[in-house]
Specification:
The complex is a heterodimer. Chain A is of the alpha/beta class. Chain A has helices at residues 27-32, 39-50, 67-72, 90-103, 114-124, 148-156, 173-177, 195-201, 210-224, 237-245, 270-277, 306-312, 323-328, 339-344; strands spanning 2-8, 56-61, 78-82, 107-112, 130-134, 162-171, 183-193, 230-233, 256-259, 262-265, 283-287, 295-297, 317-320, 331-334, 348-354, 357-363. Chain B starts with a strand and ends in a 9-residue tail after the last helix. Chain B is of the alpha/beta class. The chains are: A alpha/beta, B alpha/beta.
Chain lengths: 370, 452
């Protein structure tokens, strides 16, 4: 029997259709503009597909945060383990997740957006796998299934979940509403993936174990790393594995700087990076695609700015990524905020995906008339 | 408008052509893996029959094909040469494209051209059993077929990733009475060591070669057979190019461009060596010989020309060849037969001397070419062969740009009827474009293959 913690953020997805770019602290405004709750409807699609599955049991929250949806979808085997009052809040999400962990769950299934993902992963970290049912609006995090049906398919799979790392990103919504896109990486979740999709290509070996793939990349990068060269390592578990392989402790979510196999600076901002590269002869940037869309630059590692990239040079950027991650992102994105610089990346890029091996990936570029 | 150009059975070449005869200086000799001194026939006697050792080193221009071998080859030879009218029309190219169709052999590829004589010479030498390796299964099935003809036992170490991907090749080997084992296996000491180091390894041709060589060296009644790379293997394949020359002459043609895919180099050697001989002797200096390899395993385009081991464990002699390092494990691309770290010493020498050139392509572009070929000429080619198809299409498109009416010949080395899962992956958009990151590898300190 697989036990699933179900959490719905009832107001998620309401801001988008009424032009609010997110619903953080804006639920009342969204309602006033005529927004209709989305999350319950979308979660119901997933739950209806799971209702007949006798191998599943659910723990959830009261009312609109899960209980109502379970009843509507005719889920038989569920318990309410967290009660909330009034308008649900981030605090309720965090408390409910704590309750799920205390009860013991195999997976946390939620319906919401980046903010909900951030609140959940902030509590569970990588202790329990997390899977999101997309609730319509902005989603930069890589924890979401493609659609509610795909979420059900992943959960219905036989045997243990196959897991991969997924960054949780969120946009500063106040800045976003003011027209400025600032994305920050808030955590790394473990996300189940669909076993059937992996079988399709029969690439059994490359797909086996993401941790092993990271080790292979790290082994290669250790050979490539030259003395007296400054290495700027972006966020994520792949770059963290590289640092670990050479005996350096790296922040998972920040940008760190390494030289001669020693940490020079940890979790640095753009200004510090520009100061650090000043006077250095050889600098390399090692980054991994981040989030649902696979951003090499511009989401989650905005410390690595256009000014820094221009100073270091595009040819000195080494992109690394596990085959697991690359499979889900056929096209990668670059958004440095400097259109000319973005264009200089060209239409493809080499991504190191194993020991002495790389993959040629497409980079999205705007059409000339855009 | 002639489509098929056919030779009668009696027109099948009676001799193999040895391009070594035309080299101004001899090939660098194979070296003993321990002593690093040139090896002699005695060093090879444990695993090869004497006639094949002789063929490996001889510089005679022609070697007679035994009558008993000719009898077997006539089961499918001479193979047809096709004019690809439909492909030309589709590409709107002024070029003339010819392809030699080797998929008509019982095993479905060019490989029986050498498996039959190799099994024959082993039978003649009193050998009872042959051990070998296979990448995609083409060679394994060809040797299973040949050993059955001469009543020899056959054990085949099949690269594990292919063993999983291509179960029907394994069934073919079984149909012809051979034993097929996924490599690395626990049957050999080197296989055990490789599994201990990495239980999840996809295997590689280099690993499988080590296992087969160990098997042959440790059993008195057993010899080893290799499906590519070695000089005698390339020699046996030259029947392809010799037939092509005859067939093209029948329509008053001589090729401007000759193309083959390259893994170990034997199918390329088969179609190209007779024309390489024409270049080296000055008869036709301007033939453009092109070897096509995968971007994930670009031995000729990005490797080093140096001495390296032919296998993973270090049982084989050191060969002077283009290599990515014998410890290089190529990713599990669908063209399993092209996953080899090194290359034929003769092909390598021809690249080094500028007699031929090499190009490399990604998986998805070669499958697009294979799809184009299937939808124009009808034949569904093997993933390995699709590299040659892509090379030919690109040359034909260059002609379209320049207006040149070149005659392009390529070796259509095998069918892909057992490779439909690879096509499925292509249709589903799931093919990964692996690429060897040579610039980064060059940056790495001390990362030159460990060779003397």
């Amino acid at each position: 029997m697989r036990r699933i913690g179900l959490l719905i953020n009832p107001v998620a997805g309401m801001g988008g259709p009424v032009g609010l770019k997110g619903t953080d602290r804006m639920a009342a405004e969204a309602r006033a503009r005529g927004a209709v709750p989305q999350a319950n409807r979308r979660a119901k699609t997933t739950l209806e597909l799971l209702a007949e599955n006798d191998g599943l049991s659910f723990v959830t929250c009261s009312g609109a945060m899960g209980e109502e949806c379970c009843r509507e979808a005719r889920i038989r085997n569920f318990n309410v383990v967290y009660q909330y009052d009034g308008e649900s809040s981030a605090k309720d999400t965090q408390l409910a997740v704590r309750q799920f962990l205390a009860t013991g769950v195999d997976l946390i299934l939620f319906c919401g957006g980046d903010g909900t993902a951030r609140d959940i992963v902030g509590v569970v970290g990588q202790a329990v796998p997390v899977l999101g049912i997309p609730a319509w609006v902005k989603m930069y995090s890589a924890v979401f299934a493609i659609d509610p049906k795909a979420a059900a398919e992943i959960i219905s799979g036989e045997g243990a979940f196959m897991l991969r790392d997924a960054e949780v990103l969120d946009v500063d919504e106040d800045a976003y509403r003011a027209g400025v896109l600032k994305t920050q990486i808030f955590g790394i979740a473990r996300v189940p993936v669909l076993a059937g999709m992996i079988q399709l290509t029969k690439q059994v070996f490359e797909e086996s174990d993401e941790e092993r793939a990271k080790q292979e990349i790290a082994r290669f990068m250790k050979e490539v790393m030259l003395p007296d060269t400054l290495y700027i390592l972006g966020a994520g578990t792949t770059t963290e594995a590289i640092a670990r392989h050479i005996g350096v402790v790296k922040t998972l979510l920040g940008v760190d700087v390494i030289k001669n196999e020693k940490c020079v600076a940890r979790d640095v901002d753009e200004k510090t990076l520009l100061a650090l590269v000043d006077g250095e002869r050889e600098v390399r940037i090692i980054v991994s695609p981040i989030g649902a869309q696979g951003f090499i630059l511009g989401r989650g590692n905005q410390q690595i700015s256009a000014a820094l990239v221009r100073r270091v040079g595009i040819t000195n950027i080494i992109v690394v990524g596990t085959p697991h991650k690359l499979r889900d992102t056929p096209t990668l994105y670059v958004d440095t905020g400097d259109a000319a610089l973005n264009a200089e990346f060209g239409n493809t890029i080499l991504v190191v995906s194993s020991y002495h091996m790389a993959q040629r990936k497409r980079i999205w570029q705007p059409k000339p008339d855009q | 408008m002639q489509t098929k150009i056919l030779l009668d059975e009696e027109q099948m070449p009676k001799r193999w052509y040895n391009v070594q005869a035309e080299l101004k200086t001899p090939l660098d000799p194979p070296l003993h893996p321990q002593t690093k001194k040139p090896i002699g026939p005695d060093d090879l006697k444990a695993i090869f029959p004497m006639e094949l050792i002789r063929q490996e080193v001889t510089t005679e221009r022609y070697i007679d094909i035994p009558a008993e071998v000719q009898d077997v080859l006539r089961l499918w030879r001479p193979s047809p040469l096709y004019r690809a009218h439909r492909l030309e029309k589709f590409l709107k190219t002024p070029a003339k494209i010819y392809y030699k169709w080797e998929g008509v052999s019982p095993a479905g590829s060019h490989k029986p051209n050498t498996s039959v004589p190799q099994a024959y010479y082993n039978m003649k030498a009193g050998v009872e059993r042959i051990a070998t390796e296979t990448g995609a299964g083409q060679w394994g099935s060809a040797l299973a077929f040949a050993t059955m003809l001469y009543d020899l036992e056959c054990t085949i170490y099949m690269v594990r990733s292919s063993y999983t991907q291509k179960p029907y090749r394994k069934s073919m080997m079984q149909a012809w009475g051979a034993e097929c084992i996924p490599s690395p296996s626990t049957k050999t000491k080197c296989g055990q060591a490789m599994l201990q180091k990495d239980p999840d390894t996809p295997g590689s041709l280099g690993m499988a070669i080590s296992e087969a060589v160990e098997d042959a060296a440790s059993h008195a009644n057993t010899n080893y057979a290799l499906g590519s790379v070695l000089n005698h293997v390339c020699l046996h394949q030259t029947i392809i190019g010799q037939e092509c020359r005859e067939q093209l002459a029948m329509v008053d043609e001589y090729p401007d461009v000759v193309i083959g895919c390259v893994g170990g180099g034997s199918n390329f050697a088969g179609i190209a060596f007779p024309f390489a001989g024409d270049i080296l002797t000055g008869k036709h200096k301007d033939v453009d010989l092109i070897g096509v390899e995968p971007a994930s395993c670009p031995t000729l385009t990005k490797g080093l020309y140096t001495y390296d081991l032919a296998d993973e464990a270090g049982y084989t002699p050191l060969l002077k060849m283009f290599t990515l390092g014998h410890d290089f494990v190529p990713p599990s691309i669908h063209a399993g037969g092209l996953r080899y770290h090194g290359d034929s010493p003769i092909v390598s020498r021809l690249v080094h001397d500028g007699v031929m050139r090499a190009v490399s392509y990604h998986q998805s572009e070669v499958f697009l070419a294979a799809q184009t070929f299937a939808r124009t000429e009808g034949i569904i080619v093997a993933p390995e062969t699709s590299h040659a198809v892509k090379g030919a299409i690109d040359e034909a498109l260059k002609c379209k740009k320049s207006g040149e009416k070149k005659t392009i010949l390529f070796n259509c080395s095998g069918h892909g009827n057992f490779d439909m899962s690879a096509y499925d992956a292509y249709f589903a958009g799931k093919l990964v474009d692996f690429e060897y990151p040579d610039e980064l590898i060059k940056q790495a300190i001390g990362r030159i293959p460990k060779v003397p």
